[in-house]
Every structure is written in C-alpha cells, then in structure tokens.
Amino acid sequence: MGRRPGAAQGARHQLTRARLPLPFPHDSKRTSIMSQREPIEIIDTTVNSGTSMSPFTWQQKYALAHKGLDHKVITGGFTTIKERSGGRTDHNPCIRDGDNWVFESLRGGDFVVADYLDQTYPELPALFQGQIHHNSVKFCDTWMWLAIVRPWFECFILDYHDACLPEDRAYVRQAREQVQLGGKTMEEVQAGREDRLPGVSVALEPLREVLSGQRWLGGDAPDFADYAPLSIFLWAASLVGTPPLAENDPLRDWIERGFDLFGGLGRHPGLKPLFGLERREGDPPLFIGG
C-alpha cells in the first residue's frame, strides 16, 4: 500500500526459517523435490510486534505450506524492502525461488505468487482446482478488498501507523496521507470509526452465509479460496487497536480453524484480538441474528 521514495534506510532484518507440517500425507515425490532444492525466501513486511502485516505475505505463507514447500522468511519493515530484495523493488511483496524473483501486484484478486507455485510445482497439491475455481476465488478476493479492506484500512489507519517499526513510521505516514488519504491526516480519517465498524461487520454477511453450509470455502478441505480471505483477517489482526468483529460472530469458528492450520501458521503472540466488538444502542445488528 503506497510506494517508498529513495533508498533503504535503517536496515533492520533477520533470517528466520519455517518448516511447517505437510498438509497432506507423505509421498516420495514431494520428499524428493524438497530434498533437492533450497528453501523459498519470503521478503516479509514485519511490524513492531514481530508478526507479518502484509496480507500478500500471509497468502504466500499459506500457499507454501499447502504445497509442502520449505521456506524461510526474511523479516524487516517497509524501508528495507529494497535492500532485502537486492534492489529489485522498494514496495512489492515478493518471493525468491532460486534464481526466480516473483512479485505481487498489490491488487486484490491478482494471485501472482500462488499462480507461480501452481505452475512451477504442478506435482504438488494444487492451490486452485482449475480456471473456474480460480475465477471464483478472484471474485471473492476482489469483493473483500472493496467491501472490507478499504473501510477497515480507514478505520485502523492510525493503528496501522503505530504498529509499524519505529523507523518505518515517518515513511508510512507520508506515503499513506499523500497517496491514499487524499491529503488528510491519519487522525482525521480514523476518527469516528466506532460509527463505521458495525457496517463493515454487516458487509461480511455473504461470507457468513457461505460458511454456514460448509466447513471450508474450499469444500471438505481448505485451499486458496480460504487462504486469501484468512490472510485479510491476519492483516487486520496485525494492527487493529479495537476488535472489528463481535465476540460471538459466526465467522469465528472458521477463522480460528484457519489460523490453526499447518501447526498454527496464523498464530503469533504479536497478533491482536479480532473479536470483542460490542453493539451500541442504535447500531445495526453486527451480523444476522446478532
């Protein structure tokens, strides 16, 4: 979200390695592939609590876990992306797979890294079950970005700033206020969010309706149809200063199970509570039946 001018400043990053449980039974073909290749590197966007912020990075982590591909996370903030990517980008979330650098587009519904993984490793469990499934996931993700991410971004923009690494905050404030907030301050945009949050919760009703009849958006087992929206909730959990969803929201079961996948991939002590929004007098129901 936004573009950073100039060269990297205040480099602060470290290398962490992730070996996640395989989501499917052991097979010799997958073991052979993993033993012959170096871990894929994720260029992370880390906040002050130590957790990942970017929903694109969360998508990458879930996609790699689903594929059973070993990876390592190169942590750091916004102002060190250029350094950590070897000067290839100063703002795009990306991965490095050997000699291949793959960059996300920063647009909802553009699953650049996920598509690369399915095309490059077709013998491993697929993230998308054909073009029709891919189109459906793209539609859902585009809707989530328009109906949920955009209003939540405005409701939590100052929290977003405060969650960032201290050395990133000046850049984040300048870039977001000038490019994405039309010259308004973060304080101005976030003000009054208590009046707006109930409406965003109501907007999630289509997701609740679909999940009321099935365990996963992917059907009997999770796939990228689940990982894409789960990554948006993880983005929110990395920064929110107040919970955006009711304590008894029907989405809670699916979100909790999604965070528990792959040995608790979506669990990090730096994540903030998503549940606890209270309905005030005069507010609409936070969900149907709520």
From TrEMBL:
<dbReference type="Pfam" id="PF22041">
    <property type="entry name" value="GST_C_7"/>
</dbReference>
<dbReference type="GO" id="GO:0016740">
    <property type="term" value="F:transferase activity"/>
</dbReference>
<keyword id="KW-0808">Transferase</keyword>
<feature type="domain" description="Glutathione S-transferase UstS-like C-terminal">
    <location>
        <begin position="141"/>
        <end position="241"/>
    </location>
</feature>
<protein>
    <submittedName>
        <fullName>Glutathione S-transferase family protein</fullName>
    </submittedName>
</protein>
<dbReference type="InterPro" id="IPR036282">
    <property type="entry name" value="Glutathione-S-Trfase_C_sf"/>
</dbReference>
<dbReference type="InterPro" id="IPR054416">
    <property type="entry name" value="GST_UstS-like_C"/>
</dbReference>
